[in-house]
Structure to design on (209 residues):
């Protein structure tokens, strides 16, 4: 997602932070961050001569796979990322610019006085959501988490200033990736299902734990 991270030579990218929610507030606070990784957008190439109209620029593609027990003793996920070299919108191990991020589940806490095991909130990434499709060069991507929440970045403007990661509540939002995409998140009355919609129809639904 577009951002103004100073750590990126291109001036934009995405920072993914992970850690244990010690106070179980379902919000990852700064003091709870154990790991952070910055994914930078590519730098602009040199300006070439005028040519015929081309296809959309190369964006990022993602795939989520289970982490090996040797990497995550309590289970976890690996987020695989690459540049969409063939521009088919699907991740492939042969795509250029391969990157990965391993996110491990925390171990169960000690038994409390009530005899129940401590639980770790499900902040594992289980899917990526590309609102309105991969239709611009640097497409903003949402991360759907195991606990049903959706993680995204917010910016003060389309230039990506004052960008921060946030959990999206139910409501209507617009991407700041220049696509003009408007999408909505909603939860069923009984709280069992959450869904995302754009183009006047539900595009994806998932069960809430």
């Amino acid at each position: 997602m577009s951002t103004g991270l100073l750590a990126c030579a291109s001036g934009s990218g995405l920072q993914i932070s992970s850690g244990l929610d010690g106070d179980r507030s379902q919000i990852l606070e700064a003091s709870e961050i154990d790991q952070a990784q910055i994914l930078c957008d590519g730098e602009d190439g040199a300006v070439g001569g005028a040519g015929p109209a081309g296809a959309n620029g190369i964006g990022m593609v993602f795939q989520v796979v289970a982490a090996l027990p040797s990497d995550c003793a309590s289970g976890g996920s690996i987020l695989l990322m690459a540049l969409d070299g063939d521009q088919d919108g699907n991740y492939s191990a042969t795509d250029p610019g391969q990157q990965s991020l391993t996110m491990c589940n925390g171990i169960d806490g000690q038994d409390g006085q009530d005899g129940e095991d401590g639980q770790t909130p499900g902040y594992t990434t289980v899917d990526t959501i590309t609102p309105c499709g991969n239709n611009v060069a640097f497409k903003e991507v949402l991360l759907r988490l195991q606990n049903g929440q959706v993680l995204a970045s917010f910016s003060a403007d389309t230039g990506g200033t004052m960008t921060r990661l946030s959990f999206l509540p139910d409501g209507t939002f617009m991407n700041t990736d220049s696509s003009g995409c408007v999408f909505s998140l909603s939860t069923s009355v009984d709280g069992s299902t959450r869904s995302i919609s754009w183009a006047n129809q539900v595009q994806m639904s998932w069960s809430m734990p």
Residues 1-5 have pLDDT under 50 and may be disordered. Residues 57-106+118-207 form one domain. The longest strand covers residues 76-83. The CA atoms of residues 78 and 102 lie 4 Å apart.
